[in-house]
Design a protein that fits this description.
Oligomer: heterodimer
Distance between the termini of chain A: 41 Å
Distance between the termini of chain B: 37 Å
Helix content of chain B: under 10%
Largest sheet of chain B: 7 strands, mixed
Radius of gyration of chain A: 13 Å
Radius of gyration of chain B: 13 Å
Helix content of chain A: under 10%
């Protein structure tokens, strides 16, 4: 079965700092890749997704992610974070007819 | 916009009680899912369904059952609630046939269940 690892459990940054959150998955077949975000008190919503094509994917609110097949990775990046980016971020992988989620990374951005 | 509605945001039940969590989606999605979300564990799949009256076990089905009598509705049932089932329960739906061309997941607001 697939497993998804998010190595950073809790990240604290100041506003304007750059962000990179790691995501690795275990099975290297055909996969669809996602990053979801959960703002405090809100439901999970999609940040970005990768199905095929350009491995650099741009999402909402200035986020982007890069799919590196050889490293089984799909890391999330943002050049300059804002206080409003404070949230929990989940990486997800779809294959074997299921969505598999990482354990999440809590991001706190200090104003 | 896709809307996934979960019937209860907060529930408090006693050990041994039967619990029903209801979920309705309004976008004619084929696929529906129930997850539980616990701190540090992420989202774990309980059950999912690709069609009416069809269900498949996820990674942690023990103590749960589901029902999908209509395409838009997917219910999670705890036959006899236990304290270790205290959690946030998330319903989600997606379009597309099972396989690599599935659409993304759309989530409901969640149902926070406390079992005393």
């Amino acid at each position: 079965a697939q497993s998804v690892s998010q190595h950073n459990h809790h990240v604290i940054l100041s506003e304007a700092a750059s962000l990179e959150l790691g995501c690795n998955y275990s099975y290297g077949g055909t996969v669809n890749l996602f990053w979801y975000v959960q703002y405090p008190g809100q439901h999970l919503q999609l940040l970005l997704k990768y199905f095929s094509g350009d491995p650099l994917v741009k999402g909402i609110k200035g986020f982007e992610a890069e799919f590196i097949k050889s490293k089984f990775s799909f890391n999330l990046r943002k050049p300059s974070v804002q206080w409003s980016d404070t949230a929990e971020y989940f990486c997800a992988v779809y294959n074997f007819n299921k969505f598999y989620f990482g354990s999440g990374t809590k991001l706190n951005v200090k104003p | 916009d896709v809307k996934v509605t979960q019937s209860s945001r907060y529930l408090v039940k006693r050990t041994g009680e039967k619990v029903f969590l209801e979920c309705v989606q309004d976008m004619d999605h084929e696929n529906m899912f129930w997850y539980r979300q616990d701190p540090g564990l992420g989202l774990r799949l309980i059950y999912f369904s690709y069609d009416v009256k069809m269900k498949e076990k996820g990674d942690i089905p023990e103590g749960y059952s589901v029902s999908r009598e209509k395409k838009e509705r997917f219910s999670l049932i705890l036959e006899s609630a236990s304290t270790n089932q205290t959690s946030m329960y998330l319903c989600a739906s997606s379009s597309g046939l099972a396989g690599a061309d599935t659409g993304e997941l759309f989530f409901g607001e969640g149902s926070r269940l406390t079992v005393l």
